[in-house]
Amino acid sequence: MKAVFLGTASSFPTRERNHSALYLDIGPEALLFDCGENTQRQIRIADLSPTKISKIFLTHWHGDHVLGLPGLLQSFELNGRKAELAIFGPEKTKERFHYLTKSFEVHVSYKVNVSEIKSEAKIKRIFDAPDFEILATKATHTIPCLAFAFVEKPRVKINTEFLKKYGLTAHPLVGELQRGKDIVWKGKTIKAKDATYVLKGKKITYIVDSMYDEKLATFAKDSDVLICESTFAKSLESDAKEKGHMTAQQAGKLAKKAGATLLVITHFSQRYKDVSELLAEARKEFKNTVAARDFLEIKV
Hints:
This protein has 300 residues and is an alpha/beta fold. Helix content is 27%, strand content 29%.
């Protein structure tokens, strides 16, 4: 599984940074978080597969997070997409999606299923699959906005060293153990609880365009990767609050409170041609921090 940053700027793109978008490749499919303008070009440059995208999660409806959507939808159509596409966003997403596609004359033959998620503090499971789930909660911004978390479900793994003692390796009965059932092998009972162990799933939390809120630390609790906006330096904390954003220092505090493993700061104001100041501020609060750049890949 890998996360690829397709855009790491805030409201204004720069020569080096595109508008917000994150491509999460989870194997058989890919999830896209936000779709700022030029996202489909970024996908091509990164040599990623647009056809793998099955779901798009929109944090909010500011242009720097959604204006790449019409072009991407049209490209899907021109490439003969047949698979259903699911889009999730905050209140009024259905209405805004309707006007967006009408304004740009986007006509698609594949099915697009649009879901609205109410932006409230309660943590909600908005999508449930056999191997993972997507959670959402309210982000504190100037318009309704969401934070998302991809949570991989725990997996039952076989303790191969334990089974070697019984001379049992590749056999259909191993699958029974993985399903939690005890088995009998050569006259001996092997208990599933002894022959298996649970591997904790990975958690990736995505928070962009939000003021600092300790409730988000609860949402991001135990994240393997916390992707968090760091639009301003701490010297501009009042500006950040006024515009519904976070400072790098606050992102570090959030990661520390959440008990995250890795913090990746992103969504940088155009005023920072060099984000080393922001990285240093975040690292004072949370040492294991990296600054995102366009096309950065994080293996999870």
